[in-house]
Design a protein that fits this description.
Layout lengths: L1 E7 L2 E8 L2 E4 H4 L7 H7 L9 H15 L1 H9 L4 H21 L3 H4 L3 H17 L9
Antiparallel strand pairs: 1-2, 2-3
């Protein structure tokens, strides 16, 4: 599941991608502003100023927990699997936002191999989980 912005009738709208379909949050929750772009301009880009952001967060949280986090938790197993799964998803989401949406040059211009070299150990630690106190870290 992804939360996306999309254009409809010359307005920027907020939606959730689920099963190759975009669900328009404005059509599901009338408190979500009709023109997200205009609303963001009026509020200096702060989505949290909207009461509707609570509903968007609730929808997103439910979909993530039922879908990707549930699958990742089952695949990881072991101690703190739900937390480790949530951290994997958080790293992926944050990385994608900064690289693709924001275009942070240190990430957007980096070679994939260089990023994999940095990210690999982080993901491996989350996949492996906590090791026993007798083993190497």
């Amino acid at each position: 599941m992804k939360i996306v912005g999309f254009e409809s009738n010359n307005m920027l709208r907020l939606g959730i991608v689920e099963d190759n379909h975009v669900i328009d949050l404005q059509s599901m929750d009338p408190t979500v502003p009709d023109d997200l772009g205009e609303w963001l301009r009026r509020h200096d880009g702060d989505v949290n100023r909207s009461a509707s952001s609570k509903r968007a967060a609730e929808i997103g949280r439910e979909q993530i927990e039922k879908g990707h986090q549930n699958v990742m938790t089952a695949a990881l197993g072991g101690d703190l699997a739900p937390q480790r799964a949530a951290l994997v998803l958080s790293l992926v989401a944050g990385f994608q936002v900064m690289r693709q949406m924001i275009g942070l040059s240190a990430l957007a211009d980096a070679k994939p191999q260089a990023l994999a070299k940095i990210l690999g150990p982080l993901f491996q630690q989350l996949i492996d989980g906590e090791r026993s106190s007798g083993g190497a870290p």
